[in-house]
Amino acid sequence: MGIFDNILNQVTSRLKNDIEYKTSSGISNTIDQGAKKVLEGDKTPRCPKCKKPIEHGMKFCSGCGVKLVVSCTKCNLEFPLGTRFCSGCGGKIQ
Ligand SMILES: [Zn+2]
Ligand SMILES: [Zn+2]
């Protein structure tokens, strides 16, 4: 091992560290952005038919007209799609 080999080794390991740092930070940024997108997507209720975002209080989809509420057969209260039990009477919503 001469002086030249030592310098070469130092340069090589420095370059390697640099590349590894850039690669890992780049990947974690991408994962962060992906996770954020998934979380944001989950917060927005979407039409089961055309996937258009549903605004609060909408009873019918403005994109395809599909009904976005379910109604209790006992007391006729309306709830957002996905509601399983009526908060008015406790009955199961079909
Ligand atoms: Zn729709
Ligand atoms: Zn009910």
Task: Describe, in short, the structure shown.
With about 90 residues, the protein is mainly alpha-helical. It folds into 2 domains: about 1-45; about 45-94, no CATH class.
Description of the structure:
The chain is mostly helical. It folds into two domains: 43 residues; 49 residues, no CATH class. It is 44% helix and 6% strand. The chain contains one helix and two strands, in the order αββ. Strands 1-2 form a two-stranded antiparallel ribbon. It is rod-shaped. The N and C termini lie far apart (79 Å). Bound molecules: zinc ion (2 copies).
Radius of gyration: 28 Å
Termini separation: 79 Å
Q: What fraction of residues sit in β-strands?
A: 5-15%
Helix proportion: 40-55%
Q: Would you count the extended β strands for me?
A: 2
Mean pLDDT: 84
Shape: rod-shaped
Going by helix content, strand content and strand pairing, the class is mainly alpha
Low-confidence stretches are: none
List keywords for this structure.
94 residues, 2 strands
Strand and helix layout:
Layout: H1 3-43, E1 69-71, E2 78-80
Antiparallel strand pairs: 1-2
The protein binds zinc ion (2 copies).
One zinc ion binds next to loops.
